[in-house]
Design goal:
- The chain is an alpha/beta fold and about 375 residues long.
- It has 2 domains: about 20-190, Rossmann fold (3-Layer(aba) Sandwich); about 210-375, Dehydroquinate synthase-like - alpha domain (Dehydroquinate synthase-like, alpha domain, Up-down Bundle).
- About 50% of the residues lie in helices and about 15% in strands.
- The protein is built from 15 helices and 9 strands.
- The protein has helices at about 5-10, 40-45, 65-75, 95-110, 125-135, 150-155, 195-210, 210-225, 230-245, 250-255, 260-270, 280-295, 300-315, 325-335, 360-375, and strands at about 15-25, 25-35, 55-60, 80-85, 115-120, 140-145, 180-185, 345-350, 355.
- The strands form 2 sheets. Strands 1-2-7-6-5-3-4 form a 7-stranded mixed sheet, with helices on both faces. Strands 8-9 form a two-stranded antiparallel sheet.
- Helix 3 links the parallel strand 3 and strand 4.
- The longest helix is centred in the middle third of the chain and has 19 residues, at about 230-245.
- It is globular, with a radius of gyration of 21 Å.
- This is 3-dehydroquinate synthase.
């Protein structure tokens, strides 16, 4: 077959649309991943709650108005009485005060457990929607439309905990509860920093799962960084399914592998300049954890290099910041002690196995010094 004929056939092929069940604690998510999956939005939700009645439509202030209106019309067409609730996205969405405001809105519209909540937004709104849907009337059906890749693989499986106030952050937790997740790549930027955060999360998930998953990401790295939609859709569905399965494991040790890297990320976010990419900080968290593991003789040097190389292959950079080793250590401890009385970090034991482990003070200090020196701006 000539290259010309093959190119013509490829152009005629419809974009891949992946349908995937994702296990989560207490249930499962019907994930739809690919370009154009929202074309079936109304059809799929027609059977979500039996007879359609009321729908609380949570929308991000950053969402495209035309998209919001299109989805509202789809919901109205299949019989829902739709009430819009606009929410500021980002960390502002994940506060107890914002949750209380949304819950008040649900009360005013007389929403019941037999009705529907739909959320369109980035990570903040998707996380908030899980909190609200879990609490309302003992649980109400939730459908989400994430606007970036990280909101799919991160927030749909591990919703951000709510802040009680500015001083006490990420303390009110919830479990994921969405019944549907429409990851339409047509409404996302496949090459922005949120996409890179998702790619780092794919690597972290593979490090917690198995070598075969790690190998698939390695093979697809070029297409992932280039934003090839069909490949992104497939890998997004696979990694989200894996992350959900890990979080739903009956083994506590496996569940504890899911936040691999995030302790470091949340600890250092307040300390680094605001212009530093979150994806680079997340990748640095994996690199730092792997070096700790090698020093503890838990991880082989070759596996550490493999993780470094796949992050480099995905074009994930490094953060630049000027912080003291003592600040880094104190931040890590504060982050751990925020929700537990133990100072333990998720570290890789091999490709496919991440576990919580204690870290010797002297070893931690040595690696903190090395990290701070390597990432200084001078």
């Amino acid at each position: 077959m000539s290259d010309t004929i093959q190119d013509e056939l490829e152009e005629e092929l419809p974009p891949a649309q992946i349908k995937q069940w994702v296990s989560i604690p207490g249930g499962s998510i019907a994930l739809r991943s690919g370009v154009g999956v929202l074309s079936n939005f109304g059809t799929e939700l027609r059977t979500a709650v039996g007879r359609p009645h009321r729908c609380a439509f949570l929308t991000s202030g950053q969402a495209d108005e035309d998209l919001v209106e299109l989805l509202r019309r789809d919901l109205t067409t299949i019989g829902f009485l739709v009430t819009l609730v606009e929410v500021e996205d980002g960390e502002a969405a994940t506060t107890v005060a914002t949750e209380a405001r949304v819950l008040s809105s649900l009360a005013e519209m007389h929403l019941t457990a037999d009705d529907l909540v739909v959320a369109v937004g980035h990570s903040g709104v998707i996380s908030l929607a899980n909190h609200v849907a879990n609490k309302w009337c003992g649980g109400v059906s939730l459908a989400t439309v994430p606007l970036d890749l990280a909101a799919v693989i991160v927030s749909s499986i591990t919703p951000r905990a709510l802040d009680t106030d500015a001083e006490h952050q990420r303390l009110v937790t919830t479990k994921p509860c969405a019944r549907f997740c429409f990851a339409d790549l047509e409404v996302m930027d496949l090459c922005d920093d949120n996409a890179k955060v998702a790619q780092v999360c794919m690597v972290a998930t593979a490090m917690s799962d198995n070598e075969a998953e790690f190998g698939r990401i390695w093979d697809r790295a070029d297409n992932l960084t280039s934003g090839v939609a069909d490949i992104v859709a497939e890998q997004l569905a696979e990694s989200t399914k894996t992350r959900g399965r890990l979080s739903d494991s009956s083994a506590i040790a496996i569940q504890q592998s899911v936040p691999y890297g995030w302790v470091f990320v949340e600890a250092l976010r307040p300390l680094i300049p605001a212009d530093q990419p979150l994806s680079a900080l997340y990748a640095d968290a994996l690199r730092f954890s792997a070096r700790i593991a090698v020093a503890k003789e838990s991880l082989s040097f070759d596996d550490m290099l493999a993780q470094d190389e796949i992050l480099e292959h995905l074009n994930i950079g490094f953060v630049t910041c000027d912080i003291a080793p003592e600040q880094l250590i104190e931040a890590l401890k504060q982050e751990c002690f925020r929700s537990t009385n133990r100072f333990m970090l998720p570290i890789p034991m091999s490709i496919g196995r991440v576990r919580l482990a204690s870290v010797d003070e002297e070893l931690l200090a040595e690696h903190a010094r090395a990290w701070c020196e390597a990432h200084a701006s001078h």
